[in-house]
């Protein structure tokens, strides 16, 4: 393409800068929306991938059927006989139970109600719990064999004004249901306020504190993750037997980590489908706006087209001028669209992280930047093709007579 054509196209866009600006603005808003939704969607996919890599796809768990909060339905109980049934299932490497209750934590006469988890002080069972919960120690240590009167707190207890105005530190005592426990550690951030506000005790302390003997959840690791479905089926059968239940009338559910990830991914796919719909609508709106601008430009410059043709401009020269103008509009809109989209997505992500929803952080791969700019440029180019073709077919004599 000749440099003269490029200069001429850019000059015309500048001469009609008000109209060009409004067209760029309308496309930019659509591209910004696409960038924001896509960055958060990709961030959730990355979160799932990180969870899958950090957690065990060789883990499954048992809880009450339909229970959104394990251990809080007093009508459903998982007892030692259920734990033994799971532990003795062919293919299970290790199984453990966890107590789950709502506890009252008090500090400086301020009370908060949070979830309390009570789990084994056996090293291998602790590893199983940490693997399922995808947490590691932020400060301090994990429970040791025989620990009594000790507590581990979630990450938010380290942060001022998250749970209490003054955070806890190592060596402090935390008051749970009126009883004081020595803080021996803090878990790292999980990324949501609920999990990051949990408190953890060993099973013996949890049992004594709540006078309970039933688990809120049973977790197990299999020897061979490829045999997960078969092991889960065998565990379900054993649980039906010990609970004297018929098939299809279970009051419990057995779910593998892979199943949970698949369910979460299915929801994400729906979200991505919604994003794709937004992309289509935004592309259509951008095309209409750009086409409208270019058609108006062609009509206004009909006599000018006649002059250019009369002094030797070819049909391709005329067509290239208008296609270039529409492509430049699309490129500029795409560039500023991704910049504005990044600013909004990044600031929103930081705000969500500050509120404790760190798992909702967006991600910004290079492909997202280039893809959005390329989409905007192509939409501009193709929407300007028809007006450009119409302009190129103008007859010099008729164009010069146009009023």
Model description:
The structure is a single chain. The chain is of the alpha+beta class and 403 residues long. The chain has 2 domains: 3-52 and 262-401, no CATH class; 66-250, no CATH class. The protein is 54% helix and 17% strand. It has 12 helices and 10 strands. It has helices at residues 3-15, 17-54, 80-87, 123-133, 203-210, 228-243, 257-300, 302-310, 315-354, 366-383, 385-392, 396-401; strands spanning 59-64, 92-107, 110-119, 137-140, 150-153, 173-176, 179-187, 199-202, 217-222, 252-256. It has a 6-stranded mixed barrel. Strand 6 and strand 7 (179-187) form a beta hairpin. Helix 2 runs antiparallel to helix 10 and helix 9 runs antiparallel to helix 10 (366-383). The chain is elongated and about 95 Å long. Residues 399-403 have low confidence and may be disordered.
């Amino acid at each position: 393409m000749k440099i003269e054509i490029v200069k001429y196209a850019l000059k015309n866009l500048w001469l009609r800068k008000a109209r060009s600006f409004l067209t760029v603005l309308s496309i930019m808003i659509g591209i910004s929306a696409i960038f924001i939704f896509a960055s958060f969607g990709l961030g959730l996919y990355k979160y799932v991938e990180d969870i899958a890599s950090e957690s065990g796809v060789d883990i499954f768990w048992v809880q009450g059927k339909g229970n959104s909060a394990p251990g809080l339905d007093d009508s459903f109980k998982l007892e030692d006989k259920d734990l033994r049934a799971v532990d003795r299932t062919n293919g299970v490497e290790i199984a453990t139970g966890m107590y789950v209750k709502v506890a009252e934590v008090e500090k400086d006469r301020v009370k908060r109600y949070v979830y309390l988890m009570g789990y084994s002080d056996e090293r291998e069972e602790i590893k199983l719990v940490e693997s399922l919960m995808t947490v590691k120690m932020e400060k301090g240590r994990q429970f040791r064999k025989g620990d009594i009167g000790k507590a581990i707190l979630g990450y938010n207890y380290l942060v001022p004004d998250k749970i209490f105005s003054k955070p806890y530190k190592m060596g402090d005592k935390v008051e749970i249901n009126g009883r004081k426990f020595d803080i021996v550690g803090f878990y790292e951030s999980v990324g949501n306020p609920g999990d990051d506000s949990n408190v953890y005790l060993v099973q013996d302390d949890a049992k004594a504190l709540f006078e309970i003997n039933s688990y809120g959840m049973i977790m197990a690791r299999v020897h061979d993750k490829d045999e997960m479905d078969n092991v889960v089926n065998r565990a379900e059968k054993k649980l039906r037997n010990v609970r004297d239940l018929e098939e299809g009338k279970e009051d419990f559910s057995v779910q593998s980590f892979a199943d949970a990830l698949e369910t979460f991914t299915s929801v994400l796919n729906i979200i991505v489908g919604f994003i794709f719909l937004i992309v289509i609508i935004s592309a259509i709106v951008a095309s209409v706006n750009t086409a409208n601008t270019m058609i108006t430009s062609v009509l206004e410059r009909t006599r000018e087209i006649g002059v250019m043709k009369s002094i030797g401009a070819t049909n391709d020269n005329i067509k290239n001028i208008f296609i270039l103008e529409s492509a430049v509009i699309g490129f500029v809109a795409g560039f500023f669209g991704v910049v504005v989209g990044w600013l909004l997505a990044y600031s929103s992500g930081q705000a969500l992280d500050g509120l404790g929803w760190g798992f909702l952080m967006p991600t910004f791969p290079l492909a997202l930047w280039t893809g959005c700019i390329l989409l905007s440029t192509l939409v501009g180019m193709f929407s300007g093709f028809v007006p450009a073709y119409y302009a190129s077919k103008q007859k010099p004599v008729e164009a010069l007579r146009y009023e």
